[in-house]
Request: fold
Amino acid sequence: MKIQITLTCPQCKSTNIVKNGKKTKKQNYLCNACSRQFIGDHALSYKGAHSNTITLMMRMLVRGCGIRDISDILNISLSKVLKTLEKQQVVLQPKHSFYDKLEIDEFWTYVGKKRHKLRLIYAYHRASGEIVAWVFGKRNTNTVRELWYKIKALGIKWGGLLTDNWKRFKRAFSDTHHVIGKEGTKGIEGNNCRLSHRIRRAFRQTCCFSKKMENHIKAFELAFYYINYGHS
Ligand SMILES: [Zn+2]
Reply:
């Protein structure tokens, strides 16, 4: 009996793979497309390293499961789940060059303890459901300005920026077409609700919160990635 297994690169999904010697008696492979070295899933003895398990872990992370739930359900160590989150390097590119309206709003989160509040301020495109730019910081003009610089640095164009009437928005967006009013930010408010259901660290009225700032930001960015690229 001959069994054939098609190998795909865990990083770029290419099938342009060659053998690359043995590591701890297991066949090692090299991806010609991105130079990633890996051991095939079929040869792995530790199921936590299996690419399907990692995909599943990430989907659970962006679907409201906490680190401890994932560890318990998948029978994988807590540190492996945390490491999977820590390893994520999410880079989001704008999907369009022009956005008719970008809604901007704030969303509170906290890290370490409940009184240590951290604001997420972000730009959202209602028609496509895309999170275009974001910053985390204090609830002040500097954080809003930081978002403003990020939006400008993306090289995109927009028809108008829609916000509520918080005075910091007025100050930061004075040199662009800025529309103020609750009517214009209904899309982003709906998305705030989505975030508070999808990200365990953002659940309301519970004792869930992040201990580490880095993991906090990574958990949000991972959720943004899944929302933007259609896996939500
Ligand atoms: Zn690759």
Remarks:
- The longest helix spans residues 213-228.
